[in-house]
Amino acid sequence: MPTALITGASRGLGRALAGSLAADGWRLVLDARTAADLDAAAAAIATGPAEVVAVAGDVTDAGHRRELAAAAGDRLDLLVLNASTLGTSPLPPLAGYDLDALRAVLETNTVAPLALTQLLLPALRAARGRVLAVSSDAAVGAYEGWGGYGASKAALDQLANVLGAEEPDLRVYAVDPGDMRTAMHQEAFPGEDISDRPEPETVVPALRRLVEADLPSGRYVAAELARVPA
């Protein structure tokens, strides 16, 4: 039974991917900040033969990261770095971006994913596993107001890029899932109707392609994965 650790798994894309993997019998270690939401998601996902371990906490906390590593065990087939924060909402221009708020965004979206990956590298190496870092088009596009979040995701992209070069026995991916109908996306557009955005479940087949195909390490856009040769 392969094992996956997914951060930010109580809702949105993390929960959708967890549900897909559980249906195929994966053992899952799931993380989210709010215990009640995570427990509810884990209970809904834990169907059939799947084993689901819920470990609530904040990925910026070193103690919580150690708990996740312990729950994952000695072999880890897949690490999904999905937990992230948008930062200040409404999105502020860089000219007035509060620097403490920026540090918090970088801590959650960039530093914590690297710290967790460092802890889990022995288990990933043992399984010749995969790391999937959830990125954003804001990492490469110049969108007003998205400077803080985009910078954090651009840095995450580069961490994944270099890790893939340093760990040739692993597959390390950064993936831009595109716009989705999620709570975070709604926070980015307060008061607006985002019902035209696709549900996170529509992105899961692209992520499963990265999980299952032998694609080289690198950055991918979910909408383009169908056109990438296997």
Provide a quick synopsis of the model.
This protein has 230 residues and is α/β, with parallel strands linked by helices. Helices cover 43% and strands 15% of the residues. It has seven helices and seven strands.
Task: Give your account of this protein's structure.
The chain is α/β, with parallel strands linked by helices and 230 residues long. The chain has a single domain (3-225), classed as Rossmann fold (3-Layer(aba) Sandwich). It is built from 7 helices and 7 strands, in the order βαβαβαβαβαβααβ. Strands 3-2-1-4-5-6-7 form a 7-stranded parallel beta sheet, with helices on both faces. The longest helix has 29 residues, at 99-127. The radius of gyration is 17 Å and the shape is globular. The two termini are 24 Å apart.
What series of H and E elements makes up the topology? EHEHEHEHEHEHHE
User: What's the arrangement of strands in the largest beta sheet?
Assistant: 3-2-1-4-5-6-7
Q: What is the correct CATH architecture?
A: 3-Layer(aba) Sandwich
Instruction: Quickly give the structural class.
Output: alpha/beta
Counting DSSP H or I runs of 4 or more residues, the number of helices is 7
Termini gap: 24 Å
